[in-house]
Amino acid sequence: MPKEQATGEVSLSKTLLLPLSARPIEALVAILCILLAVYTIDTFRTGLFHLQHFRGPWWSRYTRLWICKTLASGNSAQIFVDINKKYGPVARIGPNNLITDDPEFTRRILAARSHYTRGPWFDSIKINPHISNIVSERHPGKHNHLRYQMSAGYAGKDIPDLESTIDERIVDFVRRIEQDWLSTVEGTKSFDIARRIQYLTVDIITHLSFGKPLGFVEADTDKFNFLATIETQLPIVQHFSVILELNTWLSRAANIKWLRKILVPSHTDKTGIGMIMGLSQQVIKTRFGQHAEKKKDMLGSFISRGLDATEVEMEISISLVAGSDTTATAMRSMLLSLISNPRVYSRLIEEIDGAVARGAISSPITEEEAKRLPYLQAVIKEGLRRFPPITQLRERMVPPEGDWYNGTFVPGGTFVGLNAWGLQLNSVFGDDPEVFRPERWLIEDKERLQKMGQVQELIFGYGTTRCLGIPIAMMNLNKIFVELFRRFDIQAVNPQKPWTSICYGIFFQKDFNVRITRRAPA
Ligand code: HEM
What we know:
Layout: H1 3-7, H2 9-22, H3 24-49, H4 65-72, H5 76-87, E1 90-94, E2 97-100, H6 103-110, E3 117-118, H7 140-155, H8 162-180, E4 191-192, H9 193-210, H10 216-219, H11 226-237, H12 245-253, H13 257-263, H14 272-285, H15 298-304, H16 309-339, H17 342-358, H18 367-371, H19 374-386, E5 396-397, E6 403-405, E7 408-410, E8 415-418, H20 420-423, H21 446-456, H22 470-485, E9 488-492, E10 500-503, E11 507-510, E12 513-518
Parallel strand pairs: 2-8
Antiparallel strand pairs: 1-2, 3-5, 4-12, 5-8, 6-7, 9-12, 10-11
Helix pairs in contact: 2-3, 7-15, 8-9, 8-22, 9-16, 11-14, 14-16, 16-19, 16-22
This protein binds protoporphyrin IX containing FE.
GO molecular function, one term: monooxygenase activity
Cofactor: heme
Organism: Periconia macrospinosa
């Protein structure tokens, strides 16, 4: 007997395959219909039964497109605030996605001993899909090792000139305003301070990174279209953090040489991050090999602690993105809050003038001196609280055994996003958390201050992934306002629409046109 007849299996498969060869189109349509039916049933089953105890926009339970739509709106920070207000401190925003504005829960998720890990969201912030950096690394062990290698550089321990470098850049920025941008009673020189502040922060980070600034302030332009490229790419790239399959495809496509050239920034590019990588690479070359230059900057610190040339290139590039944009947003939003609050503005100026008159501050002010100005400290704390510069979801993954939130089970593998703005509107700040009011930090009640501080510090993350750039960011903030306001009065040119601020997880802010005049001597 032929083998086929003996098994019966083959004849069954022949029967199944027959329509494929006889009527291929109909068979294909049938297969697609079956797949679609399976997908639809699975989508509805997940939508209805997975995370069913968490409330959220009704259609977000069936599709991730709700998150995409929200991110694309350019207003996601405020939409996420509204979502947690409406649906509770843990809300559902996707088939497998929650978002929380609960500070306790956030601390528990991010705590050093937590079993939560960075979710695939973090793959979307790799510069090269095949190489991780400290901000994107998901493996806890590898991340801890990188952090150990890099913290001394970021904390300034290995950079004795940290403060004098920041001074040099800020003094240069102020001098340029004095030379070219002062308005007078006769006329106005409109100064887009949003753009210029970012030139300053790019110059500061690059100067700290490899010993000299990129020269954005001097050129008064977005050199190499660096910022413009990020602004064009980020609105697209942010969808990679939601449609995770895009990351996998990108990673595969990047294996093909000619596609890699299009998709992945390369140090041979003439613009954008690739151009910056190219410049970094030139400097990096001088730091390796037999005649390697030894310098006490961030690059020198990373190399001395064991990072190789490729890792250093990635880390320097990511620090430029992580550090320049965030600090610029913090400076711009505080500046807007200050110039739109005459009471706060005059109290800060009074404090600065008093300190100058007493000889209590140098020129430029040192960080130690700034820390002794209580109202300035309150302004900085409140400014960061009222406008956290990073509002990306930064989703963490629930450990495989699952977790409990207020008596409700959260299954393992669920993504929990962090609502950066919502967290800072917590009732611990009183009944006016939406108001910029530095005085809330100047109360006597130590216990209350501590509770507020524990929520406010979440702006920089928490636990083993807490921001490494805090010393650099705080030093900038401690200096910039004193150096500006001890010399100048600043007003918005158009108080009806002082700026344009668009949120793509980080902020693109422009057209913040101000009129700067020299202050009359006190
Ligand atoms: C006001 C300014 C800043 C804010 C609000 C801020 C905020 C944050 C936040 C929220 C994270 C945590 C990310 C996560 O959840 O995993 C983070 C991480 C990080 N930030 Fe910042 N940042 C600021 C400035 C800077 C600066 C100036 C630098 C560098 C020059 C920097 C470098 C980093 C690095 C390297 C990490 C990764 C830390 C890790 O994964 O271990 N940041 N930052």
